[in-house]
Amino acid sequence: MATLSVFITAFVLVSATNICLAKEFIVGDESGWTKGYDYKAWAKDKVFNVGDKLVFHYPVGAHNVFKVNATGFQNCITSPTDQALTTGNDIVFLATPGKKWYICGVGLHCESGGQKLAIAVQFPQVAPSPSPSC
């Protein structure tokens, strides 16, 4: 019973620490989510952790964002159109670790415009503080 209590306490502390340390990434920085941008280079030196957010900025109607699997990413295959993010200020919360793939489903933006992003999300490598506060 004491072990379970220690585990729960540790989990709560780590979770609170992850939320406090979460980062918000503007995809493409000042260029935003657009055709002709090198998203592979943009993501190369960034560390994405569980709890972080991706923000996709673009003119409404000009682009969209689809979360896809590896095959969809490689072949620019979107899911049903009702699953597209379309606000122009789309926020994606990175809730789980692993590879994540995003593409634009407008026209040939993914295929010929290179409008696609692949990232790896990990658990933060931070020791929890005894009293988390943001």
From TrEMBL:
Membrane topology: Single-pass type I membrane protein
MF annotations from Gene Ontology: electron transfer activity; metal ion binding
Predominant cellular place of this UniProt entry's protein: membrane
Subcellular location per the Swiss-Prot or TrEMBL entry: Membrane
Pfam families on file: Cu_bind_like
Gene Ontology, cellular component aspect: plasma membrane
One GO biological process term: response to symbiotic fungus
Residue span(s) of domain Phytocyanin: 23-123
Signal sequence bounds: 1-22
Matches recorded under CDD domains: Phytocyanin
Keyword terms, alphabetized: Copper, Disulfide bond, Electron transport, Glycoprotein, Membrane, Metal-binding, Signal, Transmembrane, Transmembrane helix, Transport
InterPro entries: Cupredoxin, Phytocyanin-like, Phytocyanin_dom
Protein name: Phytocyanin domain-containing protein
